[in-house]
């Protein structure tokens, strides 16, 4: 089944290019450490999901590119064409001459209705080229105006028009120090609207990705492209093909559906975080060896201690004892910043994958009391290595990982709102103060729900 990617705004288009490039490079990598037959099956499965063939034989990304300014889209189309490996399709992009000025309301209330028909027609054309549609993967930022405002609008229209197809939004969480003065407003409006129309929000924090670039990749002058390549690696490690549950010969056909089924058991909980291990520079990788026991021990501790990467893990954090009474468990959580999970998916790739022991992720103490570990934990595997790593593991977690950053961003937005700062920039495009209050109420409920796990 195929996934149609919608790239929105500068951020969405730049990340989208890196994602498709990473997927293509990995699927055509000669270092897959598996048989030729298995490698061909892996390539075919990747191609079905993310690419379609054109007459000249060059694979074409199943994607629609949208921005309100032409510069980034033109650069993205040019880079894909120059790669010589894959390309974007003709007539799959939409751009205008005027951006959204970092104003969510302008993207949502002005650009959205004005350009809805043109954008939805492009998406429909791409959908019609799929033999079978798994769903939509929507890449966007939540700090600016086009990605956030127009992105929220388009996601809602996709839900209206394709209600039975799954929508997953990949969202870039802004730097805590701030890129845009109104980023907290844009963020709460984006999140609250997506919570109503998307099946799941896959969130990457810029601060965390920046630390990975500095500490793990040893990059001195970190560019947006460096950040985007780390993001693309993490997304590829989740979305590239893995075996179906009952087979070591056939790859699963509906990755989005399987992901939602495993990770989103309740519509009130749809914020997903990604961790992967190992992640390092090519120079370091050449001198490194890994064991499944070591990788999974680190990944589990990253999960329970809320670590963003394998460096600086707090090994003092321990799961509360399952035998503790509820009050004791709650205080243990608070004291050690233990991260309670609703659901976890571990994706394992590489040599001797079937010998990997994931029992540590099945501990009932890791999960909320109203889900059994057998329902809360899943593992996907393939012997085919990913992106030159002999062994690698990714974790997609629906847990309390994002409660603190969400609570902080809601608090900052509320402080601005209570003093009426910059509200006029939104109300002049048709928004009302009631719209802000609705967003605050919804997100405060999300924080409370995750906090109660």
UniProtKB/TrEMBL annotation:
Ranges in a coiled coil: none
Location in the cell: Cell projection, Cilium; Cytoplasm, Cytoskeleton, Microtubule organizing center, Centrosome, Centriole; Nucleus
Record-linked PROSITE patterns: TUBULIN (PS00227)
Keyword presence, Cytoplasm: yes
SMART domains with a match to the protein in the record: Tubulin
UniProt-listed PANTHER family: TUBULIN (PTHR11588)
Protein name: Tubulin delta chain
Native species: Mus caroli
Gene designation: Tubd1
């Amino acid at each position: 089944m195929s996934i149609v990617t919608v790239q929105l705004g500068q951020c969405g288009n730049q990340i989208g290019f890196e994602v498709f490039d990473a997927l293509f490079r990995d699927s055509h990598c000669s270092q897959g450490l598996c048989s030729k037959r298995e490698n061909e099956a892996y390539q075919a499965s990747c191609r079905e999901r993310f690419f379609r063939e054109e007459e000249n034989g060059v694979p074409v990304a199943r994607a629609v590119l949208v921005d309100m300014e032409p510069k980034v889209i033109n650069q993205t189309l040019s880079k894909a064409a120059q790669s010589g490996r894959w390309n974007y399709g003709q007539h799959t992009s939409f751009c205008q001459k005027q951006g959204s000025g970092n104003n969510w309301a302008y993207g949502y209330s002005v650009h959205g209705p004005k350009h809805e028909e043109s954008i939805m027609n492009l998406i429909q054309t791409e959908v019609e080229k799929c033999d079978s549609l798994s769903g939509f993967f929507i890449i966007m930022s939540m700090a600016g105006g086009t990605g956030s405002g127009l992105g929220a609008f388009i996601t809602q229209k996709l839900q209206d028009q394709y209600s039975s197809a799954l929508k997953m939004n990949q969202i870039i969480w802004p730097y805590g120090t701030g890129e845009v003065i109104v980023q907290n407003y844009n963020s709460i409006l984006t999140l609250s609207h997506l919570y109503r129309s998307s099946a799941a929000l896959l969130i990457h924090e810029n601060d965390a990705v920046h630390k990975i670039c500095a500490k793990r990749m040893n990059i001195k002058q970190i560019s947006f492209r460096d950040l985007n390549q780390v993001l693309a690696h993490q997304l590829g490690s989740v979305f590239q093909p893995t075996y179906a549950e009952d087979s070591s010969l056939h790859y699963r056909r509906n990755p989005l559906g399987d992901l939602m089924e495993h990770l989103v058991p309740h519509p009130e909980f749809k914020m997903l975080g990604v961790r992967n291990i190992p992640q390092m520079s090519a120079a370091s990788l050449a001198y490194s060896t890994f064991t499944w026991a070591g990788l999974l021990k680190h990944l589990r501790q990253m999960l329970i201690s809320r670590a963003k990467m394998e460096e600086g893990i707090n090994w003092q954090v321990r799961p509360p004892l399952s035998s503790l009474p509820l009050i004791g468990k709650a205080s243990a959580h608070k004291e050690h910043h233990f991260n309670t999970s609703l659901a976890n998916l571990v994706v394992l790739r590489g040599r001797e994958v079937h010998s990997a022991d994931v029992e540590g992720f099945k501990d009932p103490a890791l999960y909320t009391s109203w889900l059994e570990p057998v329902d809360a934990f899943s593992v996907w595997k393939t012997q085919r290595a990913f992106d030159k790593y002999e062994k690698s593991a990714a974790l997609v977690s629906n847990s309390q990982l994002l409660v603190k950053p969400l609570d902080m961003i809601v608090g900052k937005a509320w402080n601005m709102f209570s003093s009426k700062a910059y509200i006029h920039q939104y109300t002049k495009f048709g928004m009302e103060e009631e719209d802000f209050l609705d967003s605050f109420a919804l997100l405060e409920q999300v924080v409370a729900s995750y906090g109660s796990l």
